[in-house]
Write a structure and sequence with these properties.
Layout: H1 11-15, H2 20-29, E1 32-35, E2 43-46, H3 49-57, E3 62-63, H4 82-85, H5 98-106, H6 112-136, E4 138-140, H7 141-146, H8 148-158, H9 165-176, H10 187-210, H11 216-222, H12 232-263, H13 265-273, H14 278-289, E5 294-299, E6 303-305, E7 308-310, E8 315-319, H15 320-323, H16 359-376, E9 377-382, E10 387-388, E11 397-399, E12 401-406
Parallel strand pairs: 2-8
Antiparallel strand pairs: 1-2, 3-5, 4-12, 5-8, 6-7, 9-12, 10-11
Helix pairs in contact: 6-8, 6-16, 8-12, 9-10, 9-12, 10-12, 12-13, 12-14, 12-16, 14-16
Length: 408
């Protein structure tokens, strides 16, 4: 293999599966690599866990600000996000100190107490979804199972009525999957989905202001830290972030986890026989899945990093999916091992200001799902091909036809 064989902008290559051979080559031969692009200056690619973590934690030199280019998209030209013009703050595309103040506000809805209160109800939702699927016997695991749990959880969190929940699923798919032929829509349709979601969030907020509850929406709307509060647009953007990030990423982690168990049936048998392994299994599923493949950062000033000269304005891609297979960190990284310890993966971003706000919620959902599945289902059999999302940003599985075999 040669460096010029690697094209991380080739979405079709990702549709066939993450190009781990490329990332392995980069880690071993060019862990810091300036990748060309057809119509722009190119971008830096960081593939080792230590570097990905260090850059993710260094907001001073590696910015997430939308005005500098944001966190998604490595190519030119960049399309200005419409919400920027409307004065909103999206937590993903902010740097400290404004990001720190904003995060303190939204943290009010994600305290251990708030998440802990949800566990019994999330377990009920999980059991209902699994029992429905198992009674059917053969299902599309992604559509009928993996998408349902995070969708219902996010809907519960944000007070979305049952009859409206699949609107959130549709909006999310239109915004994230727009490069995939199955979900492909025009930029007008993407912005339309964004507008519909904003309008819906505003209606939810208005209802909660009239009728406060002991829930996350009320906590967010009433949050006040040192005189700071969420504006209407801030709340709408947070609803968008939670609906898309909380829905897409957990759905794909569960789908990748199921596919890993199908490809490694000994590991599923191990979980069935040793349910006490559930916590290490969750961490291995997260490492294996790495649902967000990369985030972008933007260099704020000229600097040297490990002998490489980076210039102000340079684009940087920090590739979590590569870092989570780093041979210097993980023994036998291409082995799916639910008993793996230690497991210092960075599926949630590796700490720093942008460490995933919903990490504990996602862990709970994955834990409850596979805990309840393993107690009911002896084995899961693939009855069709895996269909993957056409994206170099989200590691998504669109379809996974399976047959469940009950215990006993």
């Amino acid at each position: 293999m040669k460096l010029e064989d690697i094209d991380l902008l080739d979405r079709d290559r990702f549709t066939r599966g993450v190009p781990h051979d490329w990332f392995t080559f980069l880690r071993n031969n060019a862990p810091i690599y300036h990748h060309p692009e057809p119509k722009g200056p190119g971008f830096w690619v960081f593939t080792k866990l230590d570097d990905v973590t260090a850059i993710g934690r260094d907001a001073r030199h590696f910015s997430s600000e939308q005005s500098r280019g944001g966190v998604v998209g490595l190519e030119e030209p960049e399309v200005e996000a419409e919400w920027v013009e409307q004065g909103g703050n999206l937590m993903l595309t902010m740097d400290p100190p404004p990001h720190t103040r904003y995060r303190r506000l939204v943290n009010r809805g994600f305290t251990p107490r708030m998440i802990g209160m949800l566990e019994p109800h999330i377990r009920e939702l999980t059991v209902r979804i699994i029992d429905d699927a198992v009674s059917t016997g053969e299902v599309d695991f992604v559509i009928d199972v993996a998408s349902e749990l995070p969708l219902q959880v996010i809907a519960e969190l944000m007070g979305v009525p049952t009859e409206d929940r699949h609107k959130v699923f549709d909006w999310s798919n239109r915004m994230i999957g727009s490069e995939d032929p199955e979900y492909s829509v025009s930029m007008d349709k993407v912005q339309e989905a964004q507008f519909e979601m904003f309008l819906y969030a505003q209606q939810l907020a208005d209802r909660r202001r009239e009728d406060p509850q002991d829930d996350i929406i009320t906590k967010l709307l009433s949050a006040d830290v040192d005189g700071d509060a969420l504006s209407a647009m801030d709340f709408n953007l947070f609803f968008l972030l939670l609906a898309v990030a909380g829905n897409e990423t957990t759905r794909n982690a569960i789908a990748h986890g199921m596919n890993a168990f199908i490809e490694n049936p000994d590991q599923y048998e191990l979980l069935v026989s040793k349910p006490e392994l559930i916590d290490t299994a969750v961490e291995e599923i997260l490492r294996w899945a790495s649902p967000v493949l990369y985030f972008r950062r933007n260099v704020t000033e000229d600097l040297e990093y490990k002998g490489h000269q980076l210039r102000a304005g340079d684009k940087v891609g920090i590739w979590y999916v590569s870092a989570n297979r780093d041979e210097d960190v993980f023994d036998d990284p291409f082995r799916f091992d639910i008993a793996r310890e230690p497991n210092d993966h960075i599926a949630f971003g590796g700490g720093g200001p942008h460490h995933c706000l919903g990490a504990n919620l996602a862990r709970m959902e994955i834990r409850l799902f596979f805990q309840e599945l393993a107690s009911r289902v002896e084995s899961v059999e693939a009855i069709g091909e895996v269909s993957r999302l056409r994206s170099n940003f989200i590691g998504g599985i669109k379809h996974l036809p399976v047959r469940f075999h009950r215990q006993g």
